[in-house]
Amino acid sequence: MIRAENIFKSFDETEVLKDISITFEAGKTNLIIGRSGAGKTVFLKLLVGLLQPTKGKIWYSDVDFTNLGKKEVRQIRMDVGMLFQGSALFDSLTTEENIRFPLDMFTKMTTKEKKDQVNRVLERVNLEGSNDKYPSEISGGMQKRVGIARSIVLNPKYLFCDEPNSGLDPKTALLIDELIADITYEKNITTVINTHDMNSVMGIGDNIALLHLGKLVWKGNKNEVMGSDNKLLQSFIFASPFLQRLRDAALSKG
Amino acid sequence: MDFILRAPKRLLFHFGRYLLLMRNAFNRPEKWSMYWKEILRQMDDIGIGSIVIVVLISIFMGAVAAIQFIYQLDGQLIPKYYIGYIVRDLAIIESAPTITCLVLAGKVGSNMAAEIGGMRQKEHIDAMEIMGVNTAGYLIMPKVVAALVVIPMLVVFSAFVAILGGYIASVGSGELTGGEYLRGTRSFFLPNNVNMMFVKSLVFAFLLTTVSCYKGYFVKGGSVELGEASTQAVVYSNILILLADYIIAVILTG
Asked: CB distance A86–B123 less than 8 Å?
């Protein structure tokens, strides 16, 4: 479980996040949604410690993450996996070497144990046999899956995904969503997903938080989206006339 | 007034940030074997990758020095074998450590700044941070250690090749016999000059790698900023090398 308490973040004079308090539950997919510039990425970076809040606290279970020394932060990060928007795979390393990197760096596993673990996670993301391919030799969707494999190879307690669907076709995006959700439930991970993909919201949104201009303006789950009278949420989720007609049709049928 | 204060303020800011980065870079590694592998890779990059350019510049440095001094000393009451002596000392004291390191700042330094800066922009550094890796340590320390080992070797090699270049030019032009040149290279030898060469090459190696890594590590923006950082890495390294060259000369010859 991760808890953010009264988070403020400013860059010089610009206040990007204003008084955000929210709890992200374990074993659930927690989505942060909002338009571009709403402050989602800054909030995610605060949660993982790449930025420091101007005010407020972030708790990992019972540990105050904002008040730790570098060594303690690194210790917590051993339990954290993150999937980046651009996958952030190391170009000069093969798929296997990319996934093995955290194992090489932090474990005392034998070469065979590492190989087995890499193959296990590759199988989990349906990429068996791709061990020797370089990032440039695989598609964007496959790169995302390698990114997921790398982020779960150390069996993390917390998984962060920054726009996991960006740049993917709808079908592949759906597969990535399902994969992240399945892994979350299987391993009881606290998963925080930063997205503006409407399909993700309606598909895997166990908990949803809508940010607008740096403020938390709505909290709920995928089943509460349709019935919500929050105008900001409605205009964000059902942005196009086509989606608005679909929503109206669904609501009129009850 | 504000304009006058801005430059020293910026200088202090960068110097402080550089010191903090170096402190992090020389923290205890997470896993020695990973750092060792990286040190070996860097030694290969810096050493083997620079041999051709070092041979080229050194042979011409020695040859040009010999030809110039033959011209300068022509008709004067100075024995011809002095050419060998002058070329040797010039190579050992100045041209091998300084010119080689200025060239290496251009080749190796810009490469390091671009490599680390590219990793920053592609979120590779963030990805490593979130894994719990001390990125300053893993990305900078192996480069500095490799440079401190390899660059003095390159400098010794450069001095040898420059003396050889002087031999080829002076004997080849028919101005001196091989015996005369070799007599010069063995005359008035001061072991302290070799010490000075090693001190210079170690200091210059440290400066060119740390300044370049610093510029790359804190790069922001896109490809234009990356190009600027790479250029600044070379310019600042060169200025600091020349400044250090003067200070070392004053201290070690005083």
From this structure: yes
